[in-house]
Amino acid sequence: MTLIRRKFLTTAALSGGVLSAPSLVQAQSKGTFNWKMTSAYPKGSPFYFDGPGSATDLAKRIKEMSDGRLNIQVFGAGELIPAFEGFDAVRAGTVEMNHANSYFWTGKTFAAQYFTAVPFGMNFQGMNGWLYDGGGIDLWNEVYAPFGMVAMPCGNTGVQMTGWFKKEIKTVADLKGLKMRIPGLAGKVYANLGVDVKVLPGGEIFPALERGVIDAAEFVGPFQDRRLGLHKAAKYYYTTGWHESATVSELLINKAAWQTLPKDLQAIVQNAAAACNVISEGWCQKANADAMEDLVKNQKVIAKPLPEGVIKALRTETDKVLAEAVAKDPMTKKVHDSYMAFMAKYQRWADVSEGAYHSTVRG
User: Fold this and answer.
1) CA nearest to 246, candidates 118, 342, 336, 345
2) Could you say which DSSP state residue 172 is in?
3) What is the mean pLDDT of residues 57-85?
4) How far apart are CA 214 and CA 303, in angstroms?
5) What pLDDT, on a 0 to 100 scale, did the predictor assign at position 8?
6) Cα–Cα distance between 127 and 117 in angstroms, integer?
7) Residue 214 in 3-state DSSP?
8) What are the b/e assignments for 57-75, b being 16+ CB within 10 Å?
């Protein structure tokens, strides 16, 4: 027995270096990861922070799909960092993730805005086609590579509204001197037409509009806007959002942290984010339909499209803003060319599919 036992121990010791490596890898792959995710939106915000397809829903799905191996603690705007500091926090490794919209990072890289929304751009279907199958996500990660981050879509509002105005807009001249809350590319376009552009977090919009700090404001759509009480501060509600025809939520991840995750956990994050992308947009359709009916029937909101002359001027300025950006930065040009080429092809298909349905079949 002693000889047999000694032989067994010797064999185990000699082979330990070979056998322990797979065991170690397996142990690491089954380890638990505890991450932090910040949001650009306040705690409790529907769609963005709570509810179907939100930041907390995403974290819950990841935890359940990973059987508790990846736990993500979600912080609303101002809880851990200010609303618009998620980019820097993820880049520095202060947190592993941030849930927001890429157009908030215009000061970091102009190209990032294409992954949220482009004025006069694609709808939800087209945007998803470009991101998932047209090389959009690969370009997104190429844009963020110098910053040590990766990103993916994790939500979509669908088409947004132009916004709330205290006074009726009849001509382009009515925009001059107007103080308006509007982020992203649209802000640059409005600025070219004389608008005094402000970028405010969602929670600050109503008090600013009510007190006259701003004269107009864009946020999301009927449900979100009604929740903020914007209809109580302005009665003119212009449709449809020329500036954000399908607004993508961004899951931003520190690349070094991402690379520590085993492949199966990476796949879980990607699939949970894709699920939230679709689920959130579906929720918006129901919520906005109900809210719009209430705003018009019960709240006496005046809802109508912008005059054609104003739309034409906005489109002209959009082309100028994009052309200037493309001329300045090769990366922006690369993203722009990809987006526009895909949109041109998609639009030809949409004209004979969705477009024909709405104009002819549906009537």
Assistant:
1) 118
2) G
3) 97
4) 20
5) 37
6) 9
7) coil
8) bbbebbbebbeebbebebb
pTM over 0.70: yes
86 touches 98 (CB < 8 A):
yes
> How far apart, in Å, are the Cα atoms of 84 and each of 91, 102, 112, 213?
13, 11, 15, 20
Residue type, 188: K
Return the ∠ at Cα 97 (arms to 95 and 103), rounded to 5°: 115
* Cβ-contact 153, 131 below 8 angstroms: yes
Name the residue with tokens 């170690």: 24
pLDDT, residue 360, reads 81
Nearest to 255 by CA among 102, 335, 154, 147: 147
Give the closest residue to 237 by CA, choosing from 320, 147, 310, 301: 301
E strand map for 68-207? 70-75, 97-100, 149-156, 163-165, 179-181, 196-198
Q: What is the DSSP string of 334-355?
A: HHHHHHHHHHHHHHHHHHHTHH
Residue 246 has what DSSP assignment?
S
Tell me the pLDDT tens digit for each residue of 306-334: 999 999 999 999 999 999 999 999 999 99
Provide the 8-state DSSP code for 307. P
Q: Select from 148, 141, 155 the least CA-distant residue to 88.
A: 148
Please tell me whether residue 184 adopts helix, strand or coil conformation.
helix
Tell me, what amino acid is at 10?
T
Q: Could you tell me if 44 and 227 are in contact, meaning their C-beta atoms sit under 8 angstroms apart?
A: no
CA count, 13 A, side-chain hemisphere, 176: 4
CB atoms inside a 10 Å sphere around CB 311: 15
> Contact, 191 vs 213, CB < 8 A?
no
